[in-house]
Amino acid sequence: MSATPLAAETGRERQFAESIADVTAAMNRLVAVLPQVNDPHLRPRLLAFIEGAQSALADDSVELGLKRADHLAELRRGIRELAVPSRDPDLGATPTLEAVEYALGLIAIRLDNALGAARSAGWRPATPELPEELRAPVSRAELGGLIEHLAIRFDQLTREVNALKRESDAGNGQPEQTSMSDRCTPRPVW
Fold first, then answer.
1. DSSP letter, residue 34
2. Rounded distance, CA 7 to CA 113, Å?
3. Which residues have a Cβ under 8 Å from the Cβ of 169 and sit 6 or more positions away?
4. pLDDT by residue (tens digit) across 120-158?
5. What are the extents of the domains in the chain?
6. CATH class of 9-127
7. Read out DSSP for 36-102?
8. Mind listing the pLDDT tens digit for each residue in 161-187?
9. Residue 121 and residue 9: Cα distance in Å, rounded?
10. CA-based angle 53:103:131, to the nearest 5?
11. Which of 4, 149, 169, 179 is most buried by a 10 A CB count?
């Protein structure tokens, strides 16, 4: 009776090992795209990620298990931190950036599958704490447009709230209050 759980564990470990091989295959797609990347800021980050990922995936000293799952979780976090732009500031969307995004997306999906296989085998990788704040570069033009959009939306909401207030007051038979000074002004008693 103890042979069945052992076979199930072996199957789960095999599934985890196969999912790591899938991640390695996805990494090869990114390696194939790397020669096309000529952005001086993006290329070194991608190269560092690839080197770190390849060493983590090829490290045979780390057996299948929790430690290997932790390495995969770190790789998944590394993809998030790469922050590959979807557009070149001068050229817009380029086939190279799309290919990099596609390769990183495939790696992320396969890492998620590998982490799922690790969890099903009973290995729960350490989950990182979420950062207190997230930073994103925003140009002045975008920021100005965002503030303008927010101001317009707040004006719309103010008009809608005032309309609801007027309808509520009209339905209750209560006079509309226009300001706090109306409530505080002493009224003569005759």
1. G
2. 21
3. 175, 176, 177
4. 878 777 665 555 555 666 666 666 677 787 888 889 989
5. 9-127, 138-173
6. mainly alpha
7. G---TTHHHHHHHHHHHHHHHHH-TTS-TTHHHHHHHHHHHHHHHHH---SSBTTTBS-HHHHHHHH
8. 998 888 887 766 655 555 555 555 555
9. 7
10. 60
11. 169
